[in-house]
Specification:
Keywords: ANK repeat, Coiled coil, Repeat
Biased composition (Basic and acidic residues): 46-72, 116-139
Helix content: 55-70%
Radius of gyration: 52 Å
CATH topology of the domain at 134-278: Serine Threonine Protein Phosphatase 5, Tetratricopeptide repeat
Structural class: alpha/beta
Coiled coil: 285-327
Distance between the termini: 106 Å
Pfam families: Ank_2, IQ
Number of helices: 18
Strand order of the largest sheet: 4-5-6-3-7
CATH class of the domain at 134-278: Mainly Alpha
ANK repeats: 196-228, 229-261
């Protein structure tokens, strides 16, 4: 292309001002005063605009060439390429973000399950420790009562020492409060009772062991405690004919005027002599025989009434079982879980995050309804009922209640679970009433103490497999 020619520069007209004849410089300056800087700038602006317009008018118009078309296409393609790359990056970032959020949800769910397991383990250990402590306390009571009846003072002192050592292990102090607690614990073992409310002092009195009676009373035992048939230690000593034991009890404040359930007092039961204690007359024996006969008659009447009540209760339980046969909560062993897992059931592991996904749960429930299978929810030893309820309600609000009260079997309820992408097998017309009637919802747990709400809303069955 030939080089562009520069446009001709406009020529400026030169003007000169000639002062008027006969006018001096002074008078000329007086007639035409000099203009200020502001007025000069305002006059120069229109002149510059005029020059710019003249330059623009003199510039030649550039024509659009094929190279310009090529440059435009290249720019369009480059911008499109950059936009596609940016879109790919944004999509990749979105996928990574969604994967990260999904991973965080799974980790949070796993953490929640682990926390529930740890809490369940802590509660189990706490309950076991409490049961162990109660068993040991019952064993100490039994040993104390047996030692008192046998007059084994050394064994009784050993048991009292065990109580003191247990207080030391529990860090009970030696201040006023600690001493009071220690005294209470010692008195609890001194005045412990068996199933018939008999105390060690009553057992020692029945065995006639004077040294044991003194040991117990000196350590705070109640000499007027009433045990089986409201009999006091003095009554049992008199009944067994132990004169020295009766004298010891009387010295330590035993009251001979307390009546037993047979209407007699220790004073009426025996007569003291200088050498021995003569017990229970013939008339009293006859009276006791009559009381025994009356008690046997009352027992037979009570037995008949008890059997009748038990039969009525059995019939009631059978009726309740018939009502609740369709909803089961199994407190089971591990073998039960394995058995149901490999039966023709839809098995859902509550501790498996994959099984507890929203879509997995929906398909498991829908398949159980479609083919009439039991839906088995295995919670293992963790109380996961509330978490599972939340998961079911995420699929459809109120789904848990619909499953528990069998409202899910209605056409206008279970059809809400069907989606367009589920395939022809889950078409509404393929669901029939016969298979729907076979639907069961089974909850399995190894927790020996399930949630009260779960027990209230289901029919619990405890499965025990002998080893």
């Amino acid at each position: 292309m030939p080089p562009k020619k520069a446009p001709p520069k406009p020529t400026k007209a030169t003007t000169s001002k000639v002062p008027a004849k006969g006018a001096t410089g002074k008078t000329a300056a007086a007639k035409k005063p000099a203009a200020s800087g502001k007025s000069v700038a305002s006059k120069a602006a229109p002149a510059k605009e005029k020059q710019n317009k003249t330059k623009e008018a003199s510039k030649p118009v550039r024509e659009w060439t094929p190279k310009d078309d090529a440059a435009k296409k290249i720019q369009t393609m480059v911008r499109g390429f950059l936009a596609r790359r940016r879109l790919q990056r944004e999509r990749k970032r979105k996928e990574e973000y969604e994967q990260q959020m999904e991973q965080l949800e799974k980790e949070a769910f796993t953490k929640l399950v682990r926390m529930e397991q740890e809490q369940a383990e802590k509660d189990r250990k706490k309950d076991e420790e409490e049961r162990r402590r109660k068993r040991e306390a019952e064993k100490r009571k039994k040993r104390m009562l047996e030692a008192a009846f046998d007059g084994d003072n050394d064994e009784m002192l050993n048991i009292i020492s065990e109580v003191k050592e247990l207080d030391d292990q529990n860090d009970i102090g030696t201040d006023s409060i600690g001493l009071a607690l220690r005294a209470k614990h010692e008195l609890d073992i001194i005045d412990c009772e068996d199933a018939n409310n008999n105390t060690p002092l009553s057992e020692a009195a029945g065995g006639g062991h004077v040294d044991t009676i003194k040991l117990l009373i000196e350590r705070g035992a109640n000499p007027n405690s009433q045990g089986h048939f409201l009999r006091t230690p003095l009554y049992r000593a008199a009944f067994a004919g132990h004169m020295e034991a009766c004298q010891t009890l009387l010295q330590f404040g035993a009251d001979p005027r307390i009546y037993a359930s047979d209407g007699q007092t220790p004073g009426q039961l025996a007569v003291f002599t200088s050498s021995s204690l003569k017990c229970i007359s013939v008339l009293q024996c006859i009276k006791l025989e009559e009381e025994i006969a009356g008690a046997e008659a009352d027992y037979r009447t009570w037995q008949k009434k008890t059997i009748k009540d038990a039969e009525a209760e059995l019939e009631f339980v059978k009726m309740e079982c018939e009502k609740a046969r369709d909803k089961l909560a199994l407190v089971s062993s591990g073998q039960t879980s394995i058995f149901l897992r490999y039966r023709d059931t839809n098995y859902v592991d509550a501790l498996n995050p994959i099984n507890m996904e929203k879509e997995k749960l929906r398909l498991a429930l829908l398949g159980s309804l479609r083919y009439g299978k039991p839906l088995v929810l295995d919670m293992h030893e963790v109380d996961m009922f509330h978490q599972c309820q939340v998961k079911f309600d995420e699929i459809m609000p109120g789904l848990t209640d619909d499953i528990m009260d069998k409202s899910i079997l209605k056409d206008d309820v279970f059809t809400k679970l069907i989606k367009d992408g589920d395939g022809p097998d889950y078409n509404k017309n393929n669901f029939n009433d016969l298979r729907l009637s076979h639907f069961l919802f089974v909850i399995m747990t190894k927790n020996p103490f399930p949630d009260d709400e779960l027990i209230e809303r289901t029919y619990p069955i405890r499965i025990h497999i002998p080893v």
